[in-house]
Design brief:
The protein is an alpha/beta fold. The protein has 16 helices and 21 strands.
């Protein structure tokens, strides 16, 4: 086939290509979206093919984040893509950058300067909020939206960005308004609609793996700011297989920093996993064929023995001077643990004083904290040195995101610790534990099989009050 030029026209966030090559491109703009259906106590999955394009006149229309993907496909078939775009050129002021930046951090910032979009993958604790602040400094005249799904992430970003940029910041989660006198807007993804986005030059999304969630995607797809950038430790391997939607909005992964590179750069500490065995499933043993929900509700959330172990281990390590975050999947589990650990406070999406609680946790006024996954990603607590994984989830994103909370560098910290549990009381919980351990190994984290300290093993028994168990149908 002779080489032929194919126009690839980009208008803001949209990309147009001729229908004449649609048969080549369209298969690369589809994916199988995996849905989870809850029925009779069990979770079932099914997949539906979804298109990430539409037809308009003589063109196929999709998102500009697919520019690299489409050009690669056209070249594969000996076509020459001729890209036409209206990306505004922004001249960076390099002299404003911090002199301590590593080569990988410079790679990220220079890529953002040269490309109109991109996803930047770096391990939790590497300093993504620091890089976002450097980008804001590098473009002192640009209006920038910095967004994330959760309020807790936005609060942590506000704390980091206020160092040198406070006069330019508008934390919309606090003010509730779009302040035209502030050039940097901090906002949750659901509140982007409060902004006049036509007045902004750049959008940066932290924890960008969450951008593919349906409501977030629908909001972001209506924002026509030409420059979109995303940060995450886990931009791939979503359970719903919707990774392609992240690329549609933000483009491909431009720079990846590994965990080992983070340690080498002095931005992360090594991680150690302490694995404690849990042999008792509580009242789960009274059910011959438990459903998926019952395994969670009875075997994990309301398992008195397991919750007592978590509470006593937390108390034991706090007494050794450690700052501890206990992570749960559901608020009901957090409350069940708190029954045995009343000195702990709970952070959840329903907490009205979440910002104040985070400030008190960072300052050391509060320790420990039991949290749902509202604090499973994006919060910055440098001296947090132990994460206790009470949640028992097995998917890759929470395993990396949540566990990495303890990987941040702080004075005197040699390594971070994950306390997890080898739940041996049921084949499904054993498999879930094994998958978490596989993720830890894949990251190069050191795993230690542990037993309860003697002072605890004598105080914790498996004699639980069955009347307190929540046996679900």
């Amino acid at each position: 086939m002779s080489e032929q030029e194919i126009p690839v026209k980009i208008y803001g966030r949209l990309l147009h290509i001729p229908k004449s090559v649609g048969h080549l491109i369209e298969p690369h703009l589809c994916y199988e979206h995996v849905y989870v259906d809850y029925e009779r106590g069990n979770y079932n999955t099914y997949a539906v093919t979804r298109k990430v394009y539409s037809s308009k006149g003589d063109d196929i229309v999709t998102f500009s984040g697919f520019e690299d993907r489409i050009c690669e496909v056209l070249k594969r078939y000996n076509y020459i893509p001729k890209v036409e775009h209206n990306y505004p050129l922004l001249a960076p002021e390099i002299d404003r950058l911090a002199p301590t930046l590593t080569s990988k951090q410079l790679d990220i910032l220079f890529s953002m300067a040269l490309k109109p979009n991109g996803v930047y993958q770096a391990p939790t604790g590497y300093g993504k909020s620091f890089l976002i602040r450097q980008f804001c400094c590098m473009y002192p005249d640009s209006r920038i939206i910095i967004a994330s799904k959760g309020r807790a992430v936005v609060h942590s970003l506000a704390r980091e960005l206020s160092n040198g940029l406070e006069a330019h910041l508008n934390d919309v989660t606090s003010t509730g308004i779009d302040d035209p006198d502030k050039r940097i807007a901090l906002v949750t993804s659901w509140s982007i609609v409060k902004l006049d986005t036509s007045k902004y030059d750049v959008l940066i999304f932290d924890e960008v793996h969450q951008a593919a969630e349906p409501k977030n995607f629908n909001i972001l797809s209506q924002v026509h700011i030409p420059r979109f950038y995303g940060f995450s430790a886990t931009p791939e391997n979503r359970r719903d297989q919707a990774d392609i939607l992240i690329e549609a909005l933000f483009g491909p992964i431009r720079v990846e920093v590994t965990f080992d590179e983070g340690i080498k750069d002095g931005r992360n500490v090594p991680m150690h996993v302490y694995l404690y065995p849990i042999a008792s499933g509580g009242a789960l043993k009274k059910i011959s064929k438990p459903s998926s929900y019952q395994r969670k509700s009875i075997g994990i959330w309301h398992n008195s023995y397991r919750n007592r172990v978590i509470a006593e281990l937390t108390r034991y390590y706090v007494s050794k001077g450690n700052k501890i975050l206990v992570l749960t999947e559901k608020i009901q589990h957090a409350k069940a643990i708190q029954e045995y650990l009343p000195e702990a406070e709970i952070a959840s999406g329903k907490s009205k004083d979440l910002r104040d609680l985070l400030d008190r946790f960072v300052s050391g006024e509060v320790n420990p904290v039991i949290s749902t996954f509202v604090w499973g990603a994006g919060i910055n607590v440098p001296d947090l040195d132990i994460i206790i994984r009470a949640d028992a989830l097995s998917t890759e994103i929470p395993n990396i995101q949540a566990s990495g909370r303890a990987a941040r560098v702080s004075e005197g910290k040699e390594f971070g610790i994950i306390i997890d549990f080898d739940d041996r009381f049921d084949f499904a919980t054993r498999n879930s534990s094994a998958r978490r351990i596989d993720v830890y190994r894949s990251r190069g984290w050191t795993i230690h099989s542990k037993t309860l300290p003697p002072s605890l093993s004598t105080s914790i028994t498996e004699q639980v009050d069955m009347s307190q168990q929540n046996i679900a149908d």
